[in-house]
Amino acid sequence: MINNKLMAKTRNIGISAHIDSGKTTLTERILFYCDMIHKIEDVRGGGDGAKMDHMELEKEKGITITSAATTVFWKGISGKGTTFADGIEKDTKINIIDTPGHVDFTVEVERSLRVLDGAILVLCSVSGVQSQSITVDRQMKRYNVPRLAFLNKMDRMGANAFNGRDALIEKLNHNAVLMQHPIGAEDGFCGVVDLITKKAYYFDGDNGENIREEECPADLADQVEELRGTMIDAVAEYDDEVMEKYLEGNEPTEEELHKCIKIGVQSLALTPVYMGSAFKNKGVQVLLEAVTRYLPSPLTCAKPTAKTSSDETVEISPDPAEELLAMAFKITDEQFGQLTYTRIYRGTLNKGETVFNSRTGKKVRIGRMVRMNSNDRENIDSAHAGDIIAIVGIDCASGDTFVGDSDSVGLSLEGIHVPIPVIELSISCKDKNEQAKMSKGLAKFLKEDPTFHVFTDEESGETRIAGMGELHLEIYVERLKREFGAEVTVGAPQVNYRETIRVEAPFDYTHKKQTGGSGQFGQVVGVLKPLAADRKEKEDQVFRFNNEIKGGSIPNEFIGACEKGFQDVMDKGPLAAFPVIDCEIFLQDGKYHDVDSSDMAFRIASRQAMRKAINAAQPVLMEPIMKVEVTTPDEYQGGVIGDLSSRRGMIQGSETDPGGEVIINAEVPLSEMFGYSNDLRSMSAGKATYTMEFSRYHDCPSNIQSDVMKERAEKLANDD
Ligand SMILES: Nc1nc2c(ncn2[C@@H]2O[C@H](COP(=O)(O)OP(=O)(O)OP(=O)(O)O)[C@@H](O)[C@H]2O)c(=O)[nH]1
């Protein structure tokens, strides 16, 4: 019972947004108002820098690269207890994950959304919905995360809460409803009127810590009344009783409105919109009240699911008394060993206990557990369902599931959606000593980040790293130098092309060998087809195998070997040895031999059949196409568009935001985007910025295809 009460007072939230919208600043303010820090520092300021950006590199680049979990306790707006009539819980425990905004680190966002029950979508009230807002919104939808919107930077020139709300409606299709009316605008923005209570809130003191509650300013009364009507119209419908009453002419009470909003938010049908200026310390505490009121607790959030080893889906109820089920969602390395951020979904985790890693089956002893406050940590003895904590000094990979009982090994909390890497480069060191340092670093990064890949090129023997973009890899190369002292040399970044087929091709291949001893025999017959669009359910679905063998013409025991054989060839396509994607095999017939058939024989037969079939199925080379959004002052618009076009870019549209900046959207092949940050900087006197993310693979123009094939052939010849 006690635990249930604790759980009802827990909120696991993420703060997601487009780059530079002010997530870190907002998180800092939340820490401050919850007494977790005693001084506010500007994110870009000197001194120690903002607390949430704990890595040196983040401070330097002014962006958040890794997300940090932080626990805060919110005492309510008065700081003493409840201010509102319906009694906000006094100390709500809010676990916050500060998520990174740069698209190259999008897996960090995905991971945090996986373990969160609610989120604050931060938008800049000048720029509104930007490209990354769309991405994080899509991610939130994928994980069914209910959200509140916060229009930050209300103090900036051109800030407009109504435009912000409209952008949420038009661009993100949200049922976005303003919950506040701004008081003053831009420089003069000084507070908000709460549309439920019609009270005005001002944020006094050096850091906005003294909240002054007053009557609504008389000159705003009409607008507030009108906006309040719109709000009630929109929210009343979430509760039948309230709606009925309202239709009969009775205005809902405050309590009833809260109830309706809560239902709307938690059913993902409603996005209440708040506003403020994190930087100028306005509006943050009121947002926290909304978090505690409307976002779900681990008890009321959508039930998480797990997969059993036989691929069945089971629902998890967050009972602290049941067997432990927890997921490691982020790993970092510290001086004293690995720090594993963990969400507990069920059961209770106690210090000194032994649990099991469900993926490896290995025992894991929990020596030390901590609650994180950015970089400070508090030792704790136990944590229960619904909580987010960090375990010190255990060995596991990000995404691993922990279970309490060895019988449950194999159970897995659904994995994280991992986007495919689109860029790679070679990396080398001058001697063995450096090599050892580099390997240590790379092994660490691999554990931390599923979008980071390391592999050895079979032909050249060189080490290559692959990831989500130039900046992504640049950061790791820099970290190798700084954190591991490895002096590495990197090659030019290269595009990760893909190969696919355009038409069907039948196959019929017999592998037969009869040289002394036992022979080898296997025949496979069927057809290779391009994977139909409607079957590419998942973005990473690249190969499907359909066993249509009837009457045992290939015995069941060999089918697995056949599948492996077909799949082997997918790693290297016939054109330029890039992975093949979007193929489907239908294995329809074959022959076997009682004595000479073996797994090996069928695997070889399938490999050969696949090679021939791909060649006959019009293979083509595909290149990654990136979604690019450039924000630039008007005067550079022509230059930027001309340059994007010369990079084979397709301009999809441009618009001017209320701040007077032009936002250009385009799709550009990744191969044309290398070095773009420097080029854009010099083109716009450093004033334009851009974001880029993977959109899709598309056929290369034939001249590019021949260039890539020629390059590959030359490389192979050189390696020989
Ligand atoms: N005028 C104004 N500036 C703000 C406000 N909030 C943040 N900023 C500024 O906007 C810039 C970006 O703020 P951050 O908090 O680093 O933004 P972020 O979203 O965490 O950035 P990334 O982690 O890089 O995505 C900084 O220079 C902040 O000082 C605000 O309310 N008003």
Automatic annotation (TrEMBL):
One annotated GO molecular function: GTPase activity
Keyword terms of this UniProt record: Cytoplasm, Elongation factor, GTP-binding, Nucleotide-binding, Protein biosynthesis
Domain Tr-type G intervals: 8-299
Annotated SMART domains: EFG_C, EFG_IV
Superkingdom field: Bacteria
Keyword GTP-binding in record: yes
Compartment(s): Cytoplasm
Function: Catalyzes the GTP-dependent ribosomal translocation step during translation elongation. During this step, the ribosome changes from the pre-translocational (PRE) to the post-translocational (POST) state as the newly formed A-site-bound peptidyl-tRNA and P-site-bound deacylated tRNA move to the P and E sites, respectively. Catalyzes the coordinated movement of the two tRNA molecules, the mRNA and conformational changes in the ribosome.
Protein name (Swiss-Prot/TrEMBL): Elongation factor G
Gene source species: Halobacteriovorax marinus (strain ATCC BAA-682 / DSM 15412 / SJ)
